[in-house]
Give the backbone structure.
Amino acid sequence: MANVYRLVSPEKLEIYEFKKNGKLRLSKSTSPSALNFKKIKHLILSAYYSNWDVIRIENTAYQPNERAFLFSSKIAFDVDNMLTSAPFCNNISGYWAQAWCQKILLTTKLASISNQTKVYAEGVSVLSKEGGIYWRSGPVILSNAEHTGFTERYSEAEIKGPILENIDGFEFLQRAPLIGFGEKKLRVLIAASLGMIASLLFAWELSVKEAALMYFNPPAYFQNQLTGFDILNITQNLVRDGSVDKITFDQRTQQTILAFKSDDTAKTFFELVLGLPEALANWSPTLNGSAVTFNRKTGL
Amino acid sequence: MRITALLTMVTISAAAIFGSLALKSWGAALKANDEQAFTNHVRHKLNPFLWETHFSHKLEFNQITSQILKIDLNKVSESEIPRLLTVFQQLKYVRIHKLDITGDRSGQVFNISLVMTTN
């Protein structure tokens, strides 16, 4: 069975073996600072850290919300600064009990405690094996209260008999754990996770998507060098001003077509072009009516 | 452990935001320096005003299909033709398929027709 830890005071932490019969067996006592709180599964807070109260509610149908705080009118602290247990009813006595503790007392412990740890207030969860036994729990003395099924506080001056210093052999009842341990940290982690997801989505939408698209699908670059442009440079002296009607650069068919205003002008130009075989070595000119077509030779 | 996770997440968030802002700024600067960026933009390439600005000449813009564009520049003076031919040949995000230069019989001006496909 797992160990049960009892945080007595800032200087004292007791470790108990939790036996199958529900009894606690003191294993050792140590300093809280010497222990890793993350490994603790069950932690009992003494009256130094926790408080509790009981109330009898006649209405048997009463079923308070888990977050309801039955004793808010009795305490001076802000409820937001406390950790409370859910109201717990002892069905035998008909009494309701609820425990709470101030967060400020446990600030350093809360930071290192695991989300899985169940934390109990001693006044609600520990009972001696029989009545009339008194034990020290932080600054107060506790003893079973038979009529409520929980414990009652006493001052040292009231007690005539012996006062036990630990809860060895006592019964541990896993009831009314305090709610909220680790919840805030979990909320912070969830908020940080959501914030991270939101910022990653923001980054993706803002610029990363575009950059990724550019990287994986870079734009196509085209060379738009007009293939027949050199023909104009070579033949410009052979063409009379105003004799050409239209020049067409067809990049798909690799043709350059000079359309003249008359067939005669085209024929004269064509004959002149045939006399320049070296300059137009890459082209094969053809005469077609008033048009001279230069076809780019294949393989170039 | 939790603190580490928290710090890691906060660091990643901050890096993502600042990194994306820097990337956006860098990308915008790159585009601003590219005069032809509009010819590669899905909407801007269909804006005649941007083409007019790029060619520095009035034009008629016709979208034949989603990718084929026809641009007609009318009344181009003889002195403008070499400049425009250079501009056409420097187009990098579009492919020129056909270029017609027709003399206008009414005067010493030319009409240019350009058929091209876009990305």
User: Anything to note?
Assistant: The longest strand of chain B covers residues 94-104. The two ends of chain B are 50 Å apart (CA to CA). Chain B has two domains: 1-33, 36-118.
